[in-house]
Amino acid sequence: MSRDVAPPSGFPPPDHATLGGRRVALAPLAEAVADGYFAEFPDDLERYGDAARAWEIHDTMHCLQWAILDVEGYADLEREMAWLTSVLGSRGFPLERLARNLELAAVVVEARLGAPGAPVAGRLHAAAASVRVSSEPPV
């Protein structure tokens, strides 16, 4: 069952971020994450229709930028992820999938950026763990 979801609008994602003085193109990283995400969750393509991939790439580009800015000391990935978790959770998006997306992003960053990407990948793994904890039902 497909929902009528509009494509991303509003504040566009950044096209690059700077890590250790090196310009990092975010779209190719987000595209690779999206490929892995939809391989694991093909039902999201049906659920969210034509806008699914656009939203996946849009949100992932923001997450990648926040993680890089966190490593560089200019942002707080945990705070940004708390906000995104709140937004997506209020829309009924399964937060376990957000956590998995962050893990996939960590793997892609490490593979594509090598050693300079390791701290970014670490931040993304930590963010995934935090999303999982925040989405667990109270005991």
Radius of gyration: 14 Å
Question: How much of the polypeptide forms β-strand, as a percent range?
Answer: 5-15%
Low-confidence stretches: none
The total count of helices amounts to 6
Given the helix and strand composition, which structural class is it? mainly alpha
Anisotropy-based shape = globular
- The count of β-strands is 2
Q: What topology, given as strand order, has the largest sheet?
A: 1-2
Distance between the termini: 32 Å
Overall mean pLDDT score?
93
The run of helices and strands is: EEHHHHHH
Helical content stands at 55-70%
The major β-sheet equals: 2 strands, antiparallel
Written account of the structure:
With 139 residues, the protein is mainly α. It has helices at 26-40, 43-48, 52-72, 77-90, 95-113, 118-135; strands spanning 16-19, 22-25. A hairpin with a 2-residue loop joins strand 1 (16-19) and strand 2. The model has no long low-confidence stretch (mean pLDDT 93). Helix 1 (26-40) crosses helix 3 (52-72) and helix 4 (77-90) packs across helix 6. Helix content is 67%, strand content 6%. A two-stranded antiparallel sheet has the order 1-2.
Short description:
With 139 residues, this protein is mostly helical.
Notable traits:
single chain, 139 residues, mainly alpha, two-stranded antiparallel sheet, 6 helices, 67% helix
Topology:
Layout: E1 16-19, E2 22-25, H1 26-40, H2 43-48, H3 52-72, H4 77-90, H5 95-113, H6 118-135
Antiparallel strand pairs: 1-2
